[in-house]
Write a structure and sequence with these properties.
Double Stranded RNA Binding Domain; Ribonuclease iii, N-terminal Endonuclease Domain, Chain A; globular; 3-stranded antiparallel β-sheet; 9% strand; mainly alpha; 2 domains
């Protein structure tokens, strides 16, 4: 496809391997470099631009494409059902999973501190960087190519949604799991810091005194949802799951 992809096939360059797995050719390599530049790297190396603007853009592009796909492919879903399905597909754990499959952690540029604390495997960094990379694809190649990449990356997860019940938001799902397993409610501890116009919230959720999830968001609700998403993933890894259902009359094509 490109000389970059040929390099990836040799297995010598994490960034080229990422390009190969994305199956996209960037006209301007600098836009991908920006998408892979975490703020910790920029701070330590006096780099002016980070991937945060591309992350914001990529988040919007991703939500648009996924909403368009599920609107067309799930014709019996009402607005609330579509919103819940979209939320589950583009949640931080889901995006981090796709990023891991792409080998994104090996390609991101991190500062020394993040590197030493396992930043390449952090869910938030992986999810945010994937959004930035999708934003870079949109800027460099346009909405058609960005849509193609997103649909291909999410194809398996969209197929898995067929035959499943309408997904619940993370806090509801977690509450149902915990009450079924332990007969109690999950406990949230949420704190906020920063000025009122740019406050950041950190939430922790515990089950029977054990911390299962932690999340950060621009609101208390966002932070608690992120913490609940992480807790649901961990509980499922321990063998717990949300009860499933069926959805009829829906097909997902390649």
């Amino acid at each position: 496809m490109s000389s970059e992809r040929d390099i990836a096939d040799a297995g010598t360059d994490p960034r080229a391997a990422l390009i190969s797995r994305l199956d996209v050719s960037f006209r301007d390599p600098a836009i991908l470099n920006m998408a892979l530049t975490h703020r910790s790297f920029a701070y330590e190396h006096d780099v002016a631009e980070t991937n945060e603007r591309l992350e914001l853009l990529g988040d919007s592009v991703l939500n648009f494409v996924i909403t368009d796909v599920i609107y067309r492919r799930f014709p019996t879903y009402v607005e609330g059902d579509l919103a819940k399905l979209r939320s589950s597909l583009v949640s931080a754990p889901a995006l981090a999973g796709i990023a891991t499959e792409l080998g994104l952690g090996a390609a991101v540029q991190l500062g020394r501190g993040e590197e030493m604390t396992g930043g390449r495997d952090k869910m938030s960094i992986l999810a945010d960087t994937l959004e930035a990379v999708l934003g870079a694809v949109y800027v460099d190649r346009g909405i058609r190519e960005a849509g193609r990449v997103i649909r291909r990356l999410f194809r398996t997860r969209l197929k898995a949604a067929v035959g499943a019940d309408v997904p619940k938001d993370a806090k509801t799902a977690l509450q149902e799991i915990v009450t079924r397993l332990h007969g109690v409610l999950p406990s949230y501890e949420t704190t906020g810091e920063g000025p009122d116009h740019a406050k950041t919230f950190n939430a922790r959720v515990s089950v029977c005194g054990r911390m299962y999830g932690e999340g950060i968001g621009g609101s208390k609700k966002e932070a608690e949802q992120a913490a609940a998403e992480q807790a649901v993933v961990r509980l499922r890894l321990e063998g717990s799951d949300v009860d499933g259902g069926t959805a009829e009359g829906v097909t997902i094509d390649a």
